[in-house]
Amino acid sequence: MTLAQPAAGAQRLAPPEHVAGPESLWDPVCDRMADTGRAVVHTTWGEWLTAALFDPELRRLLGPDWPRYRQTPAAVGRFRFAVARLVVKYTAAAVLQVSPGDLDLAYKPGGRPYLRGIGEELELSLSHTDELIVVGVSRTGPIGVDAEPAARRVSFELLREQVCTAREAEAISALPEQERAAEFLRLWTLKEAYTKALGHGMRRRFGAFGFTWYPDGSAELTEDSPTAHEWAFATHLVQGRYLVSEAHRRLGGVEVRLRWDPEALEETDL
User: Fold this and answer.
1) Most buried in the list 203, 232, 234, 259, measured by CB within 10 Å?
2) What kind of fold does domain 17-266 have according to CATH?
3) Which of 215-245 are b and which e, b meaning 16 or more Cβ less than 10 Å from the residue's Cβ?
4) Exposure letters 67-102 (e unless 16+ CB within 10 A, then b)
5) How would you classify the pairing of strands 211-213 and 218-221?
């Protein structure tokens, strides 16, 4: 939307890390966590399917989610459900340096996952679309992730009043017609990620808050509030065909400056 130069010293969010399965090298994820206090991983449920099918510990790993897994009628939905929970547990276990089977995954009202007994030590966020699964973890404050196929086309004209502020709607309307849907989808995923981080989900009206966008793919809240500067946002293209948006609020701890590469987003004309 409104393009400007990022504020000096603004927090930057590095792209998500790819994890191809439980036996992947988790060191980059742990290093990211140690350096920045947060990490986001992406994978596909197919890459983890063998582990879900043949792991003799699957029932123990799913824990309280086992009945729901068994009661999901369609095989594809059942395996996607299992893999998503495995990715959450393995990611959390890697950064906490514990066994995945020792973690007890539970859900807050609205479906937000958390680790029972961990308290506020680790924030979690989960998103999935088509084959993609995305998990965000943070030690330094709330985190939210959202994903959509980059080729998905949603109607800006039908949904602009529900999703956009007046300023955002005006900016998107001024774009060439072939660019509007892509920019609108980018905005949608970022607002989803932000409300997930807040713990509001779809309960907060998207048109009630807006963003200022930067050429590097990052964004800032336009609202003038004491906490606005604590938030960092970004949208990345992963696996060449999915948009992954992240919202992270840094409450303290590690502060990081990362070199940014906008070329990935440019590939989709975003």
Assistant:
1) 234
2) Ribosomal Protein L22; Chain A (3.90.470)
3) eebbbbbeeeeeeeebbbbbbbbbeeebbbb
4) eebeeeeeeeebbbbbbbbbbbbbbbbbbbeeebee
5) antiparallel
Phi, psi of 4 (to 5 degrees): -150, 180
| H/E segment holding residue 144 | strand 143-149
**The CA-based dihedral angle spanning residues 111, 114, 117, 118, taken in that order and rounded to the nearest 10 degrees:** -160
CB half-sphere exposure, 130, CA atoms < 13 A: 13
- Tens of each residue's pLDDT in the chain, 270 residues: 444 444 434 467 899 999 999 999 999 999 999 999 999 999 999 999 998 888 889 999 999 999 999 999 999 999 999 999 999 999 999 999 999 999 999 998 878 899 998 866 899 999 999 999 999 999 999 999 999 999 998 888 888 888 899 999 999 999 988 888 889 999 999 999 999 999 875 566 887 888 887 777 678 898 777 788 889 999 999 999 999 999 999 876 443 333 334 444 444 444
Q: State which H helix or E strand residue 197 sits in.
A: helix 177-198
Nearest CA to 92 out of 140, 139, 23 is that of 139
